[in-house]
Design brief:
Chain B: This is Branched-chain amino acid ABC transporter permease. Chain B: Keywords: Membrane, Transmembrane, Transmembrane helix. Chain B: InterPro entries: Brnchd-chn_aa_trnsp_permease. The complex is a heterodimer. In chain A, 75% of the residues lie in helices and 0% in strands. By secondary structure, chain A is mainly α. Chain A has a domain of 42 residues. In chain A, helix 3 packs antiparallel against helix 4. The longest helix of chain A has 25 residues. The termini of chain A are far apart. In chain B, 77% of the residues lie in helices and 0% in strands. The N terminus of chain B is likely disordered. Chain B has two domains: 183 residues, no CATH class; 50 residues, no CATH class. In chain B, helix 4 runs antiparallel to helix 10, helix 5 packs antiparallel against helix 6 and helix 9 runs parallel beside helix 11. The chains are: A mainly alpha, B mainly alpha. At the A-B interface, helix 1, helix 2, helix 3 and helix 4 of A face helix 3, helix 4, helix 5, helix 6 and helix 7 of B.
C-alpha cells in the first residue's frame, strides 16, 4: 500500500496537516475566551516563550542536517556572539543574525 | 484622504479609523519583504535540500510546506515518511512536535481579536499561520498597531509570507542539486539566531525574559531526559517557574 503515489499525500494530510492544525484550533478556542490583561494569559505567554526557547536551544545543540557536521562549541559560540552583538547594537535583529553567521563561517573555515 | 497631513506624520496610529481592512492586509503582506521572511525563506531553502536528499518529490515537499506550515513538524514528518513509519506513528510524532503551537496560539488570540466583533472562524483561519517565525513577529509588532488593524495585518503577513516561502521552496528544490555543507549549515543556523534575537525583542514582561532564559537551559536537559515530550515539559516547567518567580519577586520587592 505504501508504494502507491498517493499514500505520502494521505500521510501529509492526516499526520501532517490535521496533527498540526488541531493544536492551532484548540488554541483559538481557548485563547478566544481569555482577556489580554488576564493573569492566566501572562502565564500562557511565559509557557509559550519557554517552549520556543526550548526549540532554539535544540536547534543549536542537537541540529539536523548539515549543521550537525559543525563542532558544537562553534555553534554555541556563534549564537552567543550574535546575541551579544544584537544586545550591544540597540537590539537590531539583523546585526545579531549577520554577526552570528560571520562567526560560524569564519570559525568553520579556520577549523 | 481627509487628513493627508497626519498621514505623513503618523500613518500607523492617527488614521486607524479611516483605513480599511484591505489596507492593513496589504501592509501586512508588504512585510513579506522583511528580515524574518528572508530568514524563514533561507530555512526552507535548507529544508528543500533535506527533502530532496530524503527522496521526497516536489509535490510532496510543497504539500508539506503549505499544509503543515511549521518547520520542526515538517522535519519530523519528513523523517516519518522516509523512515516508513505507519500513519498512526507519524501522526503521533507530528502531533507531539506540534503541541507547542497551542500555547502560542492561545497567547496570540487575545491580541488579535476585537471583542464582540471578531468571528471565531476568522481566528481559525488566521491560526494556520501560527508558527514560530510569524508568532514572534506578531508578538513583537502587533501591539503597536490599532486593534482593528491587527487581524487583517496578521492575515496579510501570514498569507504573504506563506506564499513567498512556498514558491521559494519549490524553486530551490528544483535548483539545488548539492549544497556545500558550510552553506547549508549557515542556512540552518539562521533560524535559531533569528529566534533568539527577536524573541528577546518581543519580551515585554520580565516573566517573558525569565521564561526565555529558563527555556534555553531546560530545553536540552528535557531533550535528553524525556525525548518526544521535551518541548512540552520545557514550556510548562520553564514558563511556570518564570511566572511564579517573577510574581514572587515582585511581591517581595514591593
Amino acid at each position: 500500500m505504501s508504494e502507491s503515489w498517493w499514500w505520502p499525500y494521505v500521510m501529509i494530510v492526516v499526520a501532517g496537516w490535521l496533527a498540526t492544525d488541531i493544536w492551532r484550533w484548540l488554541g483559538v478556542i481557548v485563547g478566544n475566551r481569555l482577556r489580554e490583561d488576564s493573569e492566566i494569559l501572562i502565564w500562557v505567554r511565559a509557557v509559550a516563550t519557554a517552549l520556543v526557547a526550548g526549540v532554539i536551544s535544540r536547534l543549536i545543540l542537537f541540529p539536523t542536517g548539515a549543521l550537525a557536521s559543525s563542532p558544537l562549541a562553534l555553534r554555541i559560540a556563534a549564537a552567543v556572539i550574535g546575541f551579544v552583538a544584537f544586545l550591544y547594537f540597540k537590539q537590531r535583529v539583523v546585526v545579531g543574525v549577520l554577526v552570528a553567521e560571520a562567526a560560524l563561517v569564519v570559525g568553520w573555515l579556520l577549523i | 484622504m481627509s487628513r493627508p497631513k497626519q498621514d505623513t506624520i503618523d500613518p500607523q496610529v492617527r488614521t486607524a479609523e479611516t483605513k480599511s481592512s484591505a489596507y492593513w492586509a496589504l501592509r501586512g503582506a508588504r512585510a513579506m519583504v522583511s528580515i524574518p521572511a528572508m530568514i524563514l525563506t533561507a530555512a526552507f531553502v535548507g529544508y528543500a535540500g533535506l527533502a530532496r536528499e530524503s527522496g521526497l518529490s516536489l509535490g510532496e515537499t510543497l504539500a508539506m510546506t503549505g499544509m503543515v506550515w511549521a518547520l520542526p513538524s515538517i522535519v519530523v514528518l519528513t523523517g516519518a515518511i522516509t523512515g516508513g513509519a505507519s500513519l498512526l506513528t507519524a501522526a503521533v510524532a507530528v502531533a507531539l512536535a506540534s503541541v507547542r503551537l497551542m500555547p502560542m496560539t492561545v497567547a496570540l488570540m487575545p491580541m488579535l481579536k476585537v471583542d464582540g466583533r471578531t468571528k471565531r472562524w476568522q481566528l481559525l483561519i488566521a491560526s494556520h499561520f501560527v508558527a514560530v517565525t510569524a508568532w514572534v513577529y506578531a508578538m513583537k509588532n502587533l501591539p503597536s498597531l490599532p486593534r482593528e488593524a491587527r487581524l487583517p495585518f496578521f492575515l496579510g503577513f501570514g498569507g504573504g509570507i506563506t506564499s513567498f516561502v512556498f514558491v521559494m521552496t519549490g524553486v530551490s528544490y528544483l535548483l539545488i542539486e548539492d549544497m556545500p555543507a558550510i552553506v547549508a549549515g549557515a542556512l540552518f543556523l539562521l533560524t535559531p539566531v533569528y529566534f533568539t534575537c527577536s524573541l528577546w525583542g518581543a519580551s515585554r514582561l520580565s516573566s517573558d525574559k525569565a521564561a526565555m532564559i529558563l527555556g534555553l537551559v531546560l530545553g536540552p536537559i528535557f531533550f535528553v531526559v524525556v525525548p518526544g515530550l521535551d518541548l512540552l515539559w520545557t514550556g510548562l516547567a520553564g514558563g511556570t517557574a518564570a511566572y511564579l518567580g517573577v510574581k514572587g519577586y515582585g511581591r517581595y520587592s514591593r
